[in-house]
Amino acid sequence: MSTPSHVAGTRPWWDSTKDRIPVTSIGVARLSLGATLMLKAFAAFIAACVLGLTLYGWDHTNRLYEGVRAGGVNVGGLSEAEATAKIEKRFAAYLDSPIQLTAGEEVFTVTPRRAGARLDAAGTAQDAFAAGRSGSYWSRTQDWARAFLHGQDRPLRLTLDAALFDAELARIAPDVVVAPANATIQMNRDDVPTLSEDRPGVSLDVSTTRSRFAREIARMGTNEVPLALFAVQAEIPAELLAPLLAEAQTAVDANLLLTVDDVVWRVSANDLRPIVSVSPDGRSLDIARGPVVDLLTRIAAEVDQDERDAAVTVNAAGDLVVVPAVNAARVDVGRTTDGVIQALRRGEDTAPLIVDHWGPPITDEMAATAAVEAEALVDDGLKLGWEGGEGSLTRDELIQALIIDSRPGESLPFRFDFDTAVIAELLTPVLDQIDRAATDARFRLIEGRVTLVGVSAPGRAVDLPLSTEAIRSALLEGKPSSRITISPVVPEITAGMISRIQVPDVLGDSATYYGESSDPRRQNVERASTLENGWLIPPGGIFSYNEFIGEIDAANGFVTGYGIVADEEGGVTTAPVIGGGVCQVSTTIFQAAFWAGFPIVERYQHPYWLPGYGQPPRGMVGLDAMINIEDDWALDMKFENTTGNWIAVVLIADGVNVSAQILGTDPGWLVEVREPAVTNVVAADPKMYYSDSPELPAGEELIVERAQEGFDVAIERIVTLNGEVIDAYTLESTFAPARNTTLRGTRAT
User: Which of 88, 240, 345, 701 is spaced 20 to 30 A from 272 at the CA atom?
Assistant: First the structure.
């Protein structure tokens, strides 16, 4: 093929540029070669990058791309299973990491575990594995490159236990949550209503706080998490109450006066304070009904009174007088409350106290009529008559027995009667004139024979039930007189019973020593023994030591001996006294009765223990009986005859011992007496005490008391019959310490 030839002076056919700079052929060749090389190099680079990224993607087909993190844990290059295990391990260590919830300067620590964090490790690994595996090839390669160069962190897939986390917030809430305070109208110290400003509160957004906390856990972080707090405005702002302040001041600027008739009750500002308030919406003044009702209820307690019927009574002078009726009064709390509330709303300082009144069924006029009728029943008194005598009951006496019974609502508002028990008391002087006790026959064992020493005699007594009822009827019927009914009284023991009295057995005995007693004491012991000897006691009867001994005086054969008497210091001592020694006889009889098993009716101990009374076989520590006979009082020793047969008390004083026997018919009792139990021993005072005695010649001294310990003692006695306990008795005594006492004679020789 031939090539177009170049003609000098003409442009080549391919060169259309008019003013092209001339280029040599060598320069063109070089430029073309450089561009070609650069293009080839760039193409090779691009091909290498594409090939490298393709190989990188192919190499991470089953592994996470490099630079990928999950919750801050580097899982790049790991398989999904390896990533799951690594995430689980790291999260387990993270669960107890403290995370601080903050509210201003307040800091509260909560751990993920306490917040109920639950990790889905497999799901988290899946999320991380998905990084760089979606979109176009170009976008995926960009994700690979960014992760490789800068890293890519995926959040943990987890949940929070709302109940546990909310419980943690509930623990924190009291320290951060503040309730809003409404504006109020209150009374100041001067009882003036004042406006208290409102105050916004602070509340906690639980949901937002939970989300913030969850985000921090999702990256396994430990940064502070601010609590989501927001302001809560008061429902009643101060500007809403401002118009009500003047109204409230008007309501309480003065005392409230409650009036009824001429009586006024003053209600102070202190009482008004809980009454006046503002409605919850802050738009009106409230008058609290409850406090008003409470206030009026207290006032009603002073005003209210029950109706009281007129009555008839006897005054101090013995006159029948009318007790005026009292009208009932009741505060109408409901209506009065309405009036008080209205008055306070209007700014008024007075309100009526509404009180209802009504009268009782029995009026003063009815009572006055009854008083006249009652006076007619007793005015003339009542004459009394009986066989062999007469008497009377005066008006003043009958008034004492008058019964006035009011009966409201009945046709006769008063009924009159007489109290028969009071009439019986009024008849006491009549009984003294009429009553004569029956005299029982008395028997005594003399030289071994039952002897009648006192004959029986019938008595008489007023039949009180019949007599008092007759008097009552006479008074009610308006009769001027009444008859006293007298009934005979038959003696229980008569002379004819002597043939049935037998005392074959010794039921109990005792003996006490008096051989070294002084002559006066010896005489008193023997005289008392004589007086007490031989008396017979019927079945069910009571033996009384004082009954048989009579008066202890010179006329009865007693002389001055030594006995226990009260001293000037309020205690007791041994001193000359008429009848000194008679207690030895009462003690001896008591011991015999005690051992025989008789029930003890009355017994008194000596102030201090006398050792001579405790000698065996019948004497025991604490087994004594003191008696005393005065004009106005007495100490006796009594026991009851429960054998069912007659018994005799026999006394013998032979100059050495005084012996007592109780004779009768053996009842078959078994008597067990236990040893005395002595406690609370008090030491005796060893000092010798002296006392002047006009009974002894001057210069003569006589020791009448020796130091003796004081103590408590208990003696238990059990009486059985055929194996069954018929009497259990514990004799208890407390003896004071005795002291050494010497009498010094002062009688002139």
Answer: 240
The Cα–Cα gap between 345 and 474 comes to: 71
CA-to-CA distance for 670 and 674, rounded, in angstroms?
13
State whether 536 and 638 are in the same domain.
yes
Q: Scanning the structure block, which residue is given the tokens 């007489």?
A: 418
pLDDT at 219 over 80: yes
- Confidence check: pLDDT of 255 > 60: yes
Q: pLDDT for 56-74, tens place per residue? A: 777 788 899 888 888 888 8
Q: Scanning the structure block, which residue is given the tokens 């109940």?
A: 163
Residue 223 covered by a domain:
no
Q: Is the dihedral of CA 161, 163, 169, 172 positive or negative?
A: negative
Tell me if 518 is assigned to some domain.
yes
What rounded mean pLDDT belongs to the chain? 86
Give CA angle at 550 (546, 556), nearest 5°: 140
Taken in order 173, 174, 175, 179, is the CA torsion positive or negative? positive
- What are the start-end ranges of the H helices in 611-694? none
DSSP letter string, 126-141 = HHHHTTT-SS-HHHHH
Give the containing element (helix H, strand E) for 56. helix 25-59
pLDDT given at position 13: 39
CA distance 390 to 60: 145
Q: From CA 697, how far away is CA 140, in angstroms rounded?
A: 148
- Tell whether 680 is covered by a domain: yes
Residues 743 and 655 in one domain: yes
Kindly state whether residues 369 and 354 are assigned to the same domain: no
Q: Which of 38-47, 133-142, 410-419 has the highest mean pLDDT?
A: 410-419
Q: Are residues 514 and 601 in the same domain?
A: yes
Question: How do 99-103 and 225-226 pair as beta strands?
Answer: parallel
Whether the pLDDT of residue 729 is over 60: the answer is yes
8 Å CB contact between 602 and 636: yes
Encode burial over 715-747: b for 16+ CB neighbours within 10 A, e otherwise: bebbbbeeeeeebeeebebebbbbbbbebebee
381 pLDDT above the threshold of 60: yes
Give burial (CB, 10 Å; 0-12/13-18/19+) of 554. Answer: exposed
Q: How many residues does the chain have?
A: 749
Q: Mark whether 86 and 123 lie in a shared domain.
A: yes
Element (H, E) at 545: helix 545-549
Least confident among 3-12, 337-346, 493-502, 538-547: 3-12
In a domain, 637, yes or no: yes
Q: For the stretch 190-226, what's the b/e string if a residue is b when 16 or more beta carbons lie within 10 angstroms of its beta carbon?
A: eeebebeebeeebbbebeebbebbbebbbbbeeeebe
Tell me: do 283 and 156 sit in the same domain: no
Token representation of residue 257: 């006066």
Q: How far apart are CA 299 and CA 340, in angstroms?
A: 13
Q: Which two tokens stand for residue 82?
A: 């390896």
pTM for the full predicted model: 0.51
CATH code of the domain containing 431: 3.10.20.800
Both 478 and 541 in one domain: the answer is no
- Going by their DSSP bridges, the two strands 256-260 and 350-352 should be labelled as parallel
Report, as an integer, the average pLDDT of 171-177.
Answer: 89
DSSP string, 150-215: H-EEEPP-EEE-HHHHHHHHHHHHHHH-B--B--EEEE-TTS-EEEEPPB-EEEE-HHHHHHHHHH
Matching residue, tokens 């919750």: 71
Helix axes 289-303, 333-345, angle to 10 degrees: 130
